[in-house]
Amino acid sequence: MSIDLSQFKQTFLEESDEGLDVLESGLLALDSGTADDEVIHAVFRAAHSIKGGAGTFSLTEIAGFTHIMETLLDEMRDGRREISNEAINVLLTSVDVLRELMDSARDDVPPQMGRVNEVQAQLEGVLNSASASGSDDTLQIQNGADNSTADDELAGWLIKFHPHEHMLRTGNDTVRIFKELASLGDLENCADLSALPEFEHMDPELSYLSWTIQLKNNKQQGATDKAAIEEIFEWVEDDCELSIEPLRLSSTSNEAASQDDVPPAEQSTVAVQANEQEAVDNVTPIATKADAKPALKASAKKKKAAEGGSIRVGTDKIDSLINMVGELVITQSMLSQMGDDFSMKKIEALREGLAQLERNTRELQESVMRIRMLPISFSFQRFPRLVHDLSQKMNKKIELKMVGEQTELDKTVMEKIGDPLVHLVRNSLDHGIEDPQTRLAAGKNEVGTITLNAYHQGGFIMIEISDDGAGLPKDKLLQKAIEKGLVSEQENLPDEKIYDLIFHPGFSTADQVSDISGRGVGMDVVRKNIKELGGNVDVTTEEGRGTTFTIRLPLTLAILDGQLVKVGNETYIIPLVSIIESLEIETDNINTIAGTAEVYKMRDEYIPLVRLYDVFDVVPGTTRLQDCLLVVVEGDGGKAGILVDDLLSQQQVVIKSLETNYKRIQGVSGATILGDGTVALILDMSGLLTLAKEIEPAQSYG
Amino acid sequence: MSKSILAVDDSTSMRQMVSFTLKSAGYQVEEAADGQQALDVARTRSFDLVLSDVNMPIMDGIELIRNLRTLPAYKFTPILMLTTEAGTAKKMEGKNAGATGWIVKPFNPDQLLNTVKRVLG
Hints:
The complex is a heterodimer of chains A (702) and B (121).
Chain A: H1 9-31, H2 37-56, H3 60-77, H4 85-107, H5 113-129, H6 136-145, E1 156-163, H7 174-182, E2 186-192, E3 210-216, H8 226-233, E4 240-247, H9 256-283, H10 296-307, H11 315-340, H12 347-372, E5 373-375, H13 377-380, H14 383-394, E6 398-403, E7 408-410, H15 411-432, H16 436-441, E8 448-457, E9 460-467, H17 474-483, H18 495-500, H19 523-532, E10 536-542, E11 546-554, E12 559-567, E13 570-575, E14 579-584, E15 590-593, E16 597-602, E17 605-611, H20 612-616, E18 629-635, E19 638-644, E20 646-654, H21 658-661, E21 668-673, E22 679-683, H22 685-695
Helix pairs in contact in A: 1-2, 1-4, 2-3, 3-4, 3-5, 4-5, 4-10, 6-9, 11-12, 14-15, 15-19
Chain B: E1 4-8, H1 12-24, E2 28-32, H2 35-44, E3 49-53, H3 61-70, E4 79-84, H4 88-97, E5 101-105, H5 109-120
Parallel strand pairs in B: 1-2, 1-3, 3-4, 4-5
């Protein structure tokens, strides 16, 4: 039977990606000395699985390469080899090489063997450097493989087989062995019952018999290989007394001795081959550049490949989903039964049924959403390596702390936040943390700390990237902004606005452009990307003490809790998370500044008013303020009051992209279809407030 | 009734491959991702054959075999280890734990089926 193995390749590659992540994080833990025994076992297991799978699925380059890694790891695991910094670095580089090999396998292109061979040589260099491990594996294979001693005059084989008493307990059945032998030729079997004890002393689970078997060549099958017979007994050779001797037509014993002479000779040639192999290994150039090339390029490529990929879901999530669907089906059948002979008497029951349907649907929806939720550790896991490599490159000492790795986040959001996160972490490494001398001089610990922290807040996930480095230089920022004409010298900017300048396009404070960061193409793109996800990024900093970037992202891009509001004939949706409160307007509290801009005095603060019908140019139901309602929202760091005709219901809405269906519109983040089939626009608070500002430039926001 | 096989491997792709191959040959296959899972399944029903990887988290193959052999229903059940050629020592360890035999990785579907047929007849 032929089975197409390529169908498993995708699964193999996916699980290998996970295996490589385990390898990488394990190696990093080993390097920093924080690892326990389980780590090296897990690392070994990962390499072992990749090798095994690669071999099975005919990815020979990967199998061969991983074999060397595995050998090295095996020695480390058994304590035969010290876990040196050098070895770890070479292994980390090997992980990169494996990733490249996996990518080639994924794209079905031949791998770039140049780098593979280079790193393989490094690995072998490490392997041969200290404790010499015997290559007994190879010897073992070749030894067992070729033992063909086909002799023309051979009539068959004489096999003496005496199982040890316990053999049956290994699950090996003598009947099975005989059946297999019988498939090789004509079998004559003679059992020796002499060892059989008296019936009352007999343990039925033990084997007391021994056999003398003549296996004669028959005409159809021709001569039998000794190796074929040995293979049949392979599993039991330590559980029995076994002799296999050639069977001659006339006598059986005479030539047995000469036959036995052959194997030793073969063995010696095998040994010579093995030595040669070792010798070759020894002369390969031992290039051990400790500096591992950063895996950045590879990881970027990997991400691209993974985006269309599959998702692994815990069985508990699936179970709860199936459960929900079950309930939904019950509710549905209840309702349809009711519809068969409906009368007004049943209206109450119908209402109940519909309420239940709504509950079921919502639960189902939540469960489905949960499937897309993954712990942010998927995104965080690349950072230990990044920090390890970059800090070595920059001669800085940096410790990376990660908090809240189990915080869950929608998969699509996660995929898109990866690059901005990398950028921010690199920034902290490059600009934030000072070199050890500077740190010591400033009275700080020479080891800098970068902390990644993730947690939920409302419907958002917050990700903080903080360092205890130099902080942002306020004066320098301001000076640069003035130089570039972004702010005038007279302007008296509050601190936050000054720090916010780093998100301005083309703004970089790095005196020298390094190859890690500082080209000034970064922070504005970071903010832009995060805003596209409906989130925001802010910075807080203290000179000499450190900087913290805080990213705020919606948990999901597919659904949001919205407040439906009415303006004229239009229905808009305001995301519930951005609403602070809604109130009736007391006209006394309205003030007009500079002639046009209206502000509303709410308790102790003044908030700008946004007349939605002005911004979107629709005909309102009323322009009388006392008939309107005010929805107080927060967006982009400021509050604002939005004037609407009426508040409708609150409901969850499914977000449909305007961009893909129409085009991008400022102030609108998407659209949804309401229960009655009409389309409602979902308002984007930050965009809306900016838009309102443009319409009334004089308006000022506090 | 077709023979039933318990396939144990922590690698999803290997498990899928083994399972798919055996199912296409008409066997019933149950899967487990580590020794502990396998043992839990094995306690609830019997199998005609157990195929187990050696290196696995939580409970490895050797430990699984040792545990299975203590169950009355598994005293004589054939248990095959899926092992790499590097594991000569592991093979012995497995045999001592009560393994029937082994299949050397990497193997292709035909080799797998041949070996399984050999054991199940």
